[in-house]
Fold this protein.
Amino acid sequence: MKSGLPKGLMVGVCILGGGILTGCQRLPDRQDVSSVRPSGYMRLLPEATSVESQFVPPKDGDSPNSRSAYHVPPTVSYEDHTLDENLSGSLEQEDYYVALKEAGWQRWMQEDGPYTVLASANKAMEAYMSTWPGHWQDAGNHARLKAFIGQTILIGRWDLAKIRRRARYYGGNVSVKTLSGAVVTLRPLPSSGEVLVQGPYGQTRLVGGDYLQSNGVLYMADSVLPFEP
């Protein structure tokens, strides 16, 4: 469905604080689904191990505890859906998606893009953000959260074939700008087929291949790409 706005027109959102206009952020239009070619291709998303690992076998005298109660049906990523739609359905990346929305990047996941997202699993997100002062959703952590998540959203459609092709011409590494303004380096690893991501403050690996989206590419990172304020 069309948004009713001319393509490329930005919607302004103003934030009020204590009755005073403190700032405005311009948000992109959502993707026009009529411009997306329908596709029946899909890929299974990672299993929700963070949920299934909560199962604890009952001890003698305890109430029954069935492993099946912790089983989560597999979820899928659809090639003709947006990054926002597919991320919202991935239980194992739920914490990452919540943080992405809290940071204010959700609308970018709904627009044409394209963008390439490096999503971390729940366990890695929880461990990393537990080291932040206070709660990660505290107002004092918002700028840090925005920059942290922003550096995991690469500008452009960087599928595996493109990364490997460009790396061959640039000495094995590809430098890509992110929404936070930071630059990350992508390095394909011939031995494993994975991609090493080097950021300003640390690194991670992309595992499980690429998930093509209507407005970009989704990857699963095996750890958090750290950020230091």
Observations:
- The two ends are 40 Å apart (CA to CA).
- DSSP finds seven helices and eleven strands in the chain.
